[in-house]
Design brief:
This protein is of the alpha/beta class and about 675 residues long. The chain folds into 3 domains: about 220 residues, Immunoglobulin-like; about 170 residues, no CATH class; about 180 residues, no CATH class. The protein contains 16 helices and 22 strands. Strands 10, 11, 12, 13, 14, 17, 18, 19, 20, 21 and 22 form an 11-stranded mixed β-sheet that branches. The longest helix is centred in the middle third of the chain and has 22 residues. It starts with a helix and ends in a 9-residue tail after the last strand. The N terminus is likely disordered.
Length: about 675
């Protein structure tokens, strides 16, 4: 962390101490009383503010289109039974409708007690000029912590400012006002309350932008004759008070709102319940498995390929087929269903010259692929050179067999729960496969996994290797894993609602979605809200609990995070948010000068000070591709480095050294940025 950033954090921490101690500067107190609503002021009707009484509850009258700003506690209700004391209450009538007129059903989203910990904060500011308004960009997110920052994001639970980067939507429809998108530089903490304040924003002529009449009424104490509008005033007063304590004068605000982040229980509770129920039923036994085919020497890298099935409890309708849903009781707890879920697996024993049984690594495949990826170029050389036996199953929910269901979801986002529900069954499949790999009555006891009557695999330790989608979902798997504590997440990132805009992979799927949701606003809002469900099965919902604050009955994990400059498919920017959230130490310099758009990409990280290093770490590799653009559009120029890192010898050395019971990494980049030519396997 740079000295400048450290000073900002210290200043924010001191402010938090002052607030906690109840000491408020006199000037701040005066500012608050100065704008306190005057009981004697002349009340006006909502028509004077341009507010429609019929929609003011399901829409937010303070800013822009119906569901803006978002996320927003205006779209929640009090719920004493929830951990946060809130419950989402989004109206389906306010959600986008597809061309068939079907509004997105948000029944499942409304079971959450808060918003996504990686939420993109969305606002519509008419006429906003980002340059004249000095919006903090990805080139230097530290500007968001400046005392005079035009936008302030405050964790009201701690009193600390939150660093972020922002930009106008580069994919906005022609003629439409682009949404302002704010991304936290690290995920928000579960259950915390976040306040956003905007001030001194300007248009292209340099003129200050006027707030909406509704927001000005709350800010300036203008009373109305509407009981519903007035009922919100105490909540708005709290927002103004929080920002005032953070040094943001109430009278300067053009827009401000707050939102509550979902609790750990809300984000992870379903999967933890499924895991504990399934393994409770298993007890001390090995999961039931079959060995269906054994192929000797399938290629020059593998000595043997074994294929079969692993059976486990079923939690989905439709026998677990794509489109199946979790069945919840009255408290929202998943219930086991009749029958079993059968997952197919592939294992490859390496053809290696190294002595001893092979290390066991669980492998996670890429976007909407399947287990057969474990047979390909991303694992072959690693297996042979480092004596690794890889086993893989399908990411049910986002596997090849789910493509049809995914296409249906893009045409009607009301079906999205079927994807996130099946993802959780798929995560259980990985956990069960891992248990078979390490159990004494599992694979090592079967002749297919033996040579001359002795186990060809070392079941004492299990590791995880995920690439691309295998890393995005693999973070969630790691957070709940009990049988392994070390994961490599490569071509990694998290938070699909951010990733999709920046991925060439979404081109084809956008071609399916756009005819059903032709307006850019509708697609953005739909996917932003869908992230609440995605969080239950991908890293974004679990990132706060992977390396620190472990989930119940779960060990802490160590993670090796690897990305590539200019990745066309998984944004390197998202990976930096993930690395900061996981509190991974960074290999620095992260990149050579001028190679990436970030002015100081290591600013929010601790650096690795000494090698060998045994903690969680973040490495960015440069194989010569152009840097990713700062705007929310995919990189398209030059070579796509997405699959380069698994085939870089230095990366393989890192992985092998890390996958040890007490593993540590050395500086394979020789005190400089990590650079490599494009591997021959990936050359076009």
């Amino acid at each position: 962390m740079s000295a400048r950033t450290r000073r900002r954090w210290i200043g924010a921490a001191l402010a938090a101490v002052v607030i906690a101690g109840g000491v408020v500067p006199a000037a701040a107190s005066a500012r608050r009383s100065e704008h306190r609503p005057a009981d004697g002021s002349r009340a006006v009707g909502l028509e004077a503010l341009g507010v429609d009484p019929a929609t003011q509850t399901r829409c937010d009258p303070i800013g822009g289109q119906c569901l803006l700003p978002l996320p927003n506690d205006h779209f929640t209700v009090a719920d004493s039974a929830s951990v946060t004391g809130r419950r989402l209450a989004i109206s389906s009538d306010s959600m986008p409708a597809n061309v068939a007129g079907v509004h997105v059903d948000v029944t499942d989203e409304n079971r959450a007690d808060g918003w996504s910990p990686g939420s993109t904060m969305l606002a519509e500011i008419k006429g906003l000029d980002a340059g004249r308004s000095r919006i903090p960009t990805i080139a230097d997110p530290s500007e968001s912590l400046d005392a005079d920052a035009r936008i302030v994001v405050l964790d009201a639970t701690t009193g600390m400012r939150v660093p972020f980067w922002a930009g106008l939507d580069a994919q906005a429809d022609p003629g439409a006002q682009p949404l302002l998108m704010l991304h936290p530089s690290r995920n928000f903490r579960d259950g915390h309350r976040i306040v956003v304040g905007m001030r001194k924003l300007r248009d292209e002529r340099g003129h200050k932008i006027a707030p909406s009449l509704a927001f000005a009424a709350y800010r300036d104490g203008q009373r109305t004759t509407d009981r519903e509008f007035e009922a919100r005033r105490p909540a708005m007063e709290q927002i103004f008070s929080d920002l005032d304590r953070a040094g943001v004068a109430r009278g300067s605000l053009q827009l401000a709102w707050d939102f509550t982040v979902a609790s750990t229980k809300s984000l992870t509770g379903r999967l933890i319940t499924i895991r504990d129920d399934a393994f409770g039923a298993l007890g001390s036994a090995a999961p039931q498995f079959t060995v269906d085919t054994v192929t000797e020497s399938p290629n020059e890298f593998f000595a043997r390929r074994i294929e079969g099935t692993v059976s486990m409890p079923l939690y989905l309708t439709d026998g677990g087929a794509p489109g199946g849903r979790l069945v919840l009781d009255a408290q929202g707890v998943p219930q086991r269903q009749p029958g079993t879920f059968v997952a197919k697996y592939i294992c490859n024993l390496p053809k290696t010259a190294l002595p001893g049984p092979a290390r066991l690594v669980l492998y996670g495949h890429g976007l909407l692929g399947d287990r057969s990826e474990v047979n390909g170029s991303l694992t072959k050389r690693m297996a042979v050179d480092h004596n690794i036996a890889y086993c893989a199953t399908d990411w049910s929910g986002m596997a090849e067999e789910d493509i049809g269901n995914a296409a249906g979801i893009l045409q009607d986002l009301s079906k999205f729960p079927s994807l996130s529900d099946r993802l959780q069954q798929g995560l259980l499949a990985f956990l069960y496969l891992g248990r078979v790999m390490v159990h004494p009555d599992g694979f090592s006891a079967n002749a297919a996994f033996q040579v001359n009557g002795q186990p060809a695999i070392d079941r004492r330790n299990l590791y995880y290797d995920g690439n691309s989608q295998g890393a995005i979902l693999g973070g969630a798997l790691t957070a709940v894993a009990q049988d392994f504590t070390r994961s490599v997440l490569a071509e990694a990132g998290m938070n699909y609602s951010i990733l999709l805009d920046r991925s060439v992979d979404f081109d084809d799927y956008l071609g399916v979605m756009r005819p059903s949701y032709p307006k850019r606003y509708d697609r953005v809002i739909g996917l932003e809200v869908a992230q609440l469900l995605w969080d239950r099965g991908e890293t974004n919902g679990y990132a706060n609990h992977i390396t620190e604050h472990p989930l119940p009955n779960t060990p802490r994990h160590r993670v090796l995070l690897i990305g590539a400059v200019g990745d066309h498919q998984v944004s390197e920017f998202s990976l930096r948010v993930e690395a900061a959230t996981l509190e991974a130490d960074a290999h620095v310099p992260i990149a050579a000068p001028g190679r990436i758009v970030d002015a100081n990409p290591g600013e929010f990280f601790d650096r690795i000070k000494r090698y060998p290093f045994s903690g969680s770490s973040y490495w960015l590799w440069d194989t010569g591709s152009p840097s990713s653009p700062a705007d929310n559009v995919p990189p398209r120029a030059g070579h796509d480095p997405h699959d380069d890192t698994p085939n870089i010898p230095g990366v393989r050395e890192l992985k092998s050294a890390f996958w040890q019971p007490h593993g540590s990494v050395t500086d394979v980049c020789l005190a400089g940025p990590c650079q490599s030519p494009v591997p021959p396997e990936n050359a076009e």
